[in-house]
Write a structure and sequence with these properties.
315 residues, alpha/beta, Rossmann fold, 2 domains, five-stranded parallel beta sheet, four-stranded parallel beta sheet, binds phosphoric acid mono(formamide)ester
Length: 315
């Protein structure tokens, strides 16, 4: 089934066929991104608004680049210079943005549920660029695109996700996406950093990273989200790093072709050592690059684009 939706709020409610359609479309946009002229006219005349209420380096810039490569007009809305700081409500701010005739709104917010709320009150397509501890669907898509590119499949792979799973929207989107695509997902972390609803997720749980990495195809490290923790959930960063950090001695226990991933921003020396972050098995920079094609695919398909249109552009 092709992807025919107005909004992208999360991967939880997508079918495997819809995810495959998004990944196949992203693959076609990757080949366009490798050309000298990287632009196609698909979104000419449309306006994409980046509405970021939380900081971002990778997601905001790659959405901007993705929209520009599709020839859309792009507005970057910065909360720090807006009237939000004067007490304007979220919905009034969003309605003001839409009065500028936006077609698509890419939203990041520290509160889970904001993209869903906006999809109920605005006419524009809403794309979730990360909401609280809920989901970060385009990160999940770019991660699956990176895995599929390197391993030529997702089904049957063992993916170890290690770190602060409880507070991670990246982990949640990857768990939903990867399990739907047939990967075997193992979560690793101290019990206090594992999600409370773990029983309803189709995953295994381990507390020993050294054991978990042994037969892993993908090792996905997560940052500790101190900004979302209300109290101390482990004794010290130093102890956390000793038990749950990925350094060369732990990576040596894994298969030589195991991929190392991280969504960024990284805390080098905490969850991942600098040597591992920069090693040959690390695909962290590929993840960032693939973010452009994944986000082009999302914008293109939500705007009603068809696969044969990309073929006509040579993708
Ligand atoms: N991975 C990710 O969401 O990074 P940014 O916070 O820099 O967008």
């Amino acid at each position: 089934m092709p992807f025919k939706r107005k909004h992208l709020i999360g991967l939880e409610d997508l079918t495997p066929e819809e995810i495959k359609s998004l990944l196949d479309t992203a693959e076609a946009f990757k080949s366009i991104s490798n050309r000298q002229v990287k632009k196609v006219p698909s979104l000419r005349g449309r306006t994409v608004v980046n509405l970021f209420f939380e900081n971002s380096t990778r997601t905001r810039t790659s959405f901007e680049l993705a929209a520009k490569r599709l020839s859309a007009d792009v507005i970057n809305f910065s909360v720090s210079t807006s009237s939000v700081s004067k007490g304007e409500t979220l919905i009034d701010t969003a309605r003001t943005i839409e009065a500028l005739e936006s077609d698509m709104v890419v939203v990041r917010h520290s509160c889970s549920g904001v993209p869903l709320l906006l999809s109920n009150v605005l006419r524009s397509s809403i794309i979730n660029a990360g909401d609280g501890m809920h989901e970060h669907p385009t990160q999940g898509l770019l991660d699956m695109l990176t895995i599929r590119d390197k391993k030529k499949k997702i089904e049957g792979l063992k993916v170890v996700i290690s770190g602060d799973i409880a507070h991670s929207r990246v982990a949640r989107s990857n768990i939903y996406g990867l399990t739907k695509m047939g990967a075997k997902v193992t979560l690793v972390g101290p019990p206090t950093l594992l999600p409370k609803d773990i029983d309803r997720l189709d995953v295994k749980v381990e507390n020993d990273l050294r054991h978990a990495v042994k037969d892993a195809d993908v090792i996905y490290m997560l940052r500790i989200q101190l900004e979302r923790q209300k109290r101390s959930l482990f004794p010290s960063i130093r102890e956390y790093s000793m038990f749950f950090g990925l350094d060369e001695s732990v990576l040596k226990l894994a298969k030589p072709d195991a991929m190392v991933m991280h969504p960024g921003p990284m805390n080098r020396g905490v969850e991942i050592s600098p040597e591992v972050a920069d090693c040959k098995q690390s695909v962290i920079n590929d993840q960032v690059t693939n973010g452009i094609a994944a986000r082009m695919a999302v914008l293109f398909l939500l705007a009603g684009g068809e696969a044969n249109e990309i073929a006509a552009y040579g993708g």
